[in-house]
């Protein structure tokens, strides 16, 4: 028996109840490898001295087998367990070997299990000691039939049946992929476009490429308004075609563009074309999206200040540009792991991310079916997709970093290039001589890719093979037009480590690698931190612009404090808005689950919305043409009490409407000239509206005169009510402007 059982059983019942005068439950989780068909038989009988009662059982099939949950019932008197006059009975599972299919035998539940089947039993009790003695009674049977059994006891206070991520059937949750070549995409529960964005329509504007005559269809979202002066507002949109069968994939909008250029040029990259003076279809496409001239786009790409991530094999791509002279972009991360997710779920995450505004996506898969998962993502992604190739390379050597070789890494690069990956994150700046610099850090090396390279460097006492073979990597990227995101493998993982020697040493090496890439016409962006307090952020931006020759900067936040686990989408969005206003071109989003666990759909949405706010705030600070249009339209709608327009112009219309309707949920409230914050008498905007109306009716010539008159009248009301700021009876207060 585990020590936990022994320690708990040694405590007296009275002593335990003095310490824990609450309802307590014991939870036992059992894992085993059955060599034959096995089952749990749940029997409605056991020693009556137990103070546990379990009268119902739920059979729930999960990913790899069967779970049996014991739920709290009532005894024959109808009292709660532990409060009954007569002692209740405890149903205890026993382990049996059977060879029959699952059957239901009345009060018994028998089910065949599979390899690594988890079985969970939850019992609720007021007498912990009795629970332990009951568990002890059948433990020998468990260990005899299941030698690899793992038992764990937890004792939360005042707990009912536990509701966890594992036993909630959430929207979009899918079972593991059975056939990676034929996923069950019908399981995907997508969100209709109009449900997410009411009163909006997906539109396309057409443009003709000057040299080839190809028609370009550029997407945008049109928000239809109730304003007679402005019937609609057009917004940037990355959601891609909706209602497309994932098995068919998205339309190949770039096929004719790519086919006509194939084999005609020394190198096949947007930078190469731009330096030759060519305006490609991709350049004109992004110019239409950004509201800028195609020539300006070409010049920025040629200079290296902007990149268009567009692998020639990603034909489904709707091109966009990353550069500090353009709208700030945000990246979302998805990817399966060794224990979670499926192909279906990853495609759904892709659709979910693009719906809410992700500009690029990184597939960080490390689990099963990596190649097939990425293939389905590529064929269904309208936005650029990036990867960290070292992750898949590590899987090919069974997770042993020391066994990595350049040959394995090169093979992985070509494999992903053929699939259409648009940009690679490669931590080529983690040099052998930089690794010792991290010894004095509080959090060491926090980058997964950086730690893999560092471990390899130290074990072999050789230079980073990605650095040594940088020219070979550039040749691959030049052939497929893959952009390089030079990883910051030594980024700070805490405020304490911000702007240290190792971080900036790697950044200087990034600058050298950037210039070498430009010699081969390969597009580059530089990755940045990390965890950086506000006062140290400007130094990061200055150094990157100087050392990396103004290549686009791509940062993870940065997080501006370490004290808010669960809210790191906020701590990082603060830093993201700051550094983007200084020139960062793309922001990698952070979810509320950062440092805590894998994000779910709600976390992904929260992270994207937080970063859309940060990116837009930076666009306003940079005074980009048209950036303020949405703010002005929403402010006008707010002042005119057009509630539906306020909701629909927001980043998340559904949430905005829901918050409003919590206190004012009637249809009439959608036309009311107040909200629940101030009420009908103290709405500042209503008062201002009344002042203006009063001015018009009484012949005041200018707003200033009207405002002064209105303020004088409201001052009289204030004095008449005893100079009170807050009144008990606001219903009887007369607004002189309405009198």
TrEMBL record:
It comes from the Eukaryota. The keyword Hydrolase does not apply. Residues 197-262 form the ThiC-associated domain. Its cofactor is [4Fe-4S] cluster. InterPro entries: ThiC (IPR037509), ThiC-associated_dom (IPR025747), ThiC/Bza_core_dom (IPR038521), ThiC/BzaA/B (IPR002817). The keyword Nucleus does not apply. One of its GO terms (molecular function) is carbon-carbon lyase activity. Pfam families: ThiC-associated, ThiC_Rad_SAM. Keywords: 4Fe-4S, Iron, Iron-sulfur, Lyase, Metal-binding, S-adenosyl-L-methionine, Thiamine biosynthesis, Zinc. GO terms for biological process: thiamine biosynthetic process. Residues 227-249 are annotated as: Disordered. Catalyzes the synthesis of the hydroxymethylpyrimidine phosphate (HMP-P) moiety of thiamine from aminoimidazole ribotide (AIR) in a radical S-adenosyl-L-methionine (SAM)-dependent reaction. HAMAP family: ThiC. This is ThiC-associated domain-containing protein.
